[in-house]
């Protein structure tokens, strides 16, 4: 397969590119390497893929010195013409769109970034796939689409029309946009609703990263909703295993569709939850981190933040039925691996 991964310098994009490269697939990564968080982490991920030119990715496509079949180009999806030219030149079999403006809380202070990155950027992907057809388009959605829905575990067949944040709105819009292009132009498309992904090389704005940094520095951590939070924390290796399986299963229309149920369609479009399927109380998560770091956390108990939700819990029955996906990394193991990576990475960059 020839696979395009957008957001290849991101957390999930990097891990997927590495997985596919090790399997011998041809991988072409793109990323705009924006400064939403520390770019040193993004360049570090690319270096792990053998992509670390001295010129800083300013001279077009760069090849990996570790994986001969991996290439990278610095590119912003907002540049629709450049994106179409890339599709025309490379003729991808699979496109995995992971490029997006991330973060629920940031959407409250910079909403324009979400419209430009998540709506216009994804439209450019769809238009490129329309002009230069691909075998399968896989794209990142989010558990945030469920918003204030309280029927748990969250099921793809259930409602996703009461968003709690603009970030969630843009991800739900992506699902609807993909469905319309699947229906109109027969583009096979699968959306993946990620549930609180964590692990080595994770994002610095996520809870595990923030907590680890603060605890090791003997600084207090902010715990919202007075600790009454639950998250379906999902380890990155489990996510990548599920994605690898999904990529290879091209969706077809469901003839048995009842005209109502969400997640399936007579168009070649599919939506899956991809999570651990076992929510963890935030207090238990913090205790596991304290045990691993050997440091007691100083805790600031705070009220719920705007745009946040009290609990997430993924029903992954559909994904398991169709692909055999079963996450198998427990919280303590995942935290241990993250902590080991964190100490090693910041020992090397300090």
Specify the number of helices.
10
Question: What topology, given as strand order, has the largest sheet?
Answer: 3-4-2-1-5-6-7-12
Mean pLDDT: 94
| Beta strand % | 15-25%
Oligomer: single chain
| Structural Rg | 20 Å
Count of extended strands: 14
Global outline: globular
**Regions with little confidence, pLDDT below 50 for 5+ residues:** none
Q: Roughly what percent helix?
A: 25-40%
Distance between the termini: 39 Å
Describe the largest sheet: 8 strands, mixed
Task: Provide the structure class.
Answer: alpha/beta
Order of helices and strands: EHEHEEHEHEHEEHEEEHEEHEHH
In short:
With 350 residues, this protein is an alpha/beta fold.
Tell me what you see in this structure.
This protein is α/β, with parallel strands linked by helices. Helix content is 38%, strand content 16%. It contains ten helices and 14 strands. It has an eight-stranded mixed beta sheet with strand order 3-4-2-1-5-6-7-12, sandwiched between helices. A two-stranded parallel sheet has the order 8-11. A two-stranded parallel sheet has the order 9-14. Strand 5 (94-97), helix 4 (111-131) and strand 6 (136-142) form a beta-alpha-beta unit. Helix 1 (11-22) packs across helix 7 and helix 8 (282-293) crosses helix 10 (331-349). The radius of gyration is 20 Å and the shape is globular. The two termini are 39 Å apart. The mean pLDDT is 94.
Using brief descriptors, characterize the structure shown.
350 residues; alpha/beta; eight-stranded mixed sheet; two-stranded parallel sheet; 14 strands; 38% helix; 16% strand
């Amino acid at each position: 397969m020839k696979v395009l991964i957008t957001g290849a310098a991101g957390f999930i994009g990097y891990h997927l590119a590495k997985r596919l490269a090790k399997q011998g697939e041809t991988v072409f990564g793109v990323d705009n390497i924006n400064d939403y968080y520390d770019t040193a982490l993004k360049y570090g991920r690319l270096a792990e893929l053998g992509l670390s030119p001295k010129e800083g990715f300013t001279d077009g496509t760069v090849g990996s010195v570790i994986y001969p079949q991996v290439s990278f180009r610095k590119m912003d999806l907002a540049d629709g013409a450049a994106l179409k030219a890339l599709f025309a030149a490379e003729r991808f079999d699979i496109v995995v769109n992971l490029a997006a403006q991330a973060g629920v809380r940031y959407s409250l202070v910079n909403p324009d970034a979400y419209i430009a990155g998540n709506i216009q950027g994804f439209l450019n992907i769809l238009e490129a796939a329309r002009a230069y057809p691909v075998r399968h388009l896989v794209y990142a959605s989010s558990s945030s689409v469920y918003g204030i829905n309280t029927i748990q575990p969250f099921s793809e067949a259930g409602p996703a029309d009461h968003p709690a944040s603009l970030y969630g709105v843009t991800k739900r819009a992506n699902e609807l946009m993909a469905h319309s292009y699947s229906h109109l132009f027969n583009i096979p498309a699968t959306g993946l609703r990620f549930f609180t992904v964590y692990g080595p090389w994770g994002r610095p704005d996520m809870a595990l990263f923030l907590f680890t940094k603060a605890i090791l520095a003997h600084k207090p951590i902010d715990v919202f909703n007075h600790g009454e939070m639950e998250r379906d924390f999902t380890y990155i290796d489990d996510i990548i295993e599920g994605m690898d399986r999904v990529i290879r299963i091209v969706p077809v229309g469901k003839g048995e569709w009842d005209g109502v149920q969400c997640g399936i369609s007579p168009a070649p479009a599919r939506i899956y939850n991809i999570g651990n399927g076992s929510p963890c109380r935030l207090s238990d998560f913090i205790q596991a981190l304290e045990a691993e770091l050997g440091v007691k956390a100083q805790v600031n108990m705070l009220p719920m933040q705007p745009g946040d939700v009290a609990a997430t819990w993924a029903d992954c029955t559909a994904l398991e039925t169709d692909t055999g996906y079963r996450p198998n990394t427990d919280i303590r193991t995942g935290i241990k691996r993250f902590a080991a990576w964190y100490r090693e990475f910041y020992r090397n960059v300090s």
